[in-house]
Amino acid sequence: MKTAGNLTTRDKFCHFNGMEVVFAEKGLARARMEIKPHHLNGLDIVHGGAVFTLADLAFAAATNCGDEAVVSTNATISFIKAASDGIIFAEAKEIARSRKLVTYESRVTNAAGELIAILLGTGYIKGNPRPCS
After folding, report:
1. Residue 117 and which of 41, 69, 77, 107 are 20 to 30 A apart at CA?
2. End-to-end C-alpha distance for the chain, whole angstroms
3. In whole angstroms, what is the distance from residue 99 CA to residue 116 CA?
4. Contact 63, 112 (CB under 8 A)
């Protein structure tokens, strides 16, 4: 098991918004975010952009932890349930691979394990390895 502190601190947007990668290995990563008032939208629920960013961070950590660099080419998200407090988690795992493309599913859940959102992302394999830590 590898931790991915460097991936978190190098991603200035995620770091600034209180998101962190807590686990990463090639093909699998987990990120977390403690919900703060600045994450809430006008309805006092977590802004969809914050949920998307957390899911995308896990996707990025899982795809860039190994012997290749990957950039996102497409991502879609389905919001299932709202969250307004506590901690939310995103876990990304590889579900398909070809010579130059990977597809990942990133599931966002709350502390009780309830599904908040599902992101489906495709990445282009560029090469140029990036270490997990």
Report:
1. 69
2. 11
3. 32
4. no
- Specify whether the CB–CB gap between 108 and 119 falls below 8 A: yes
31 forms bridges with which residues in the sheet?
21, 90
- Domains in the chain, ordered, with CATH? 5-126 (3.10.129.10)
pLDDT of residue 66: 78
Q: What is the CA radius of gyration of the chain?
A: 14
Structure tokens at 4: 């991915």
* Per-residue pLDDT reduced to its tens digit, 32-55: 999 999 999 999 999 999 999 999
Answer whether 66's CB lies under 8 Å from 133's CB.
no
Three-state DSSP at 98 gives coil
Torsion of CA 101, 19, 14, 39, to 10 degrees: 120
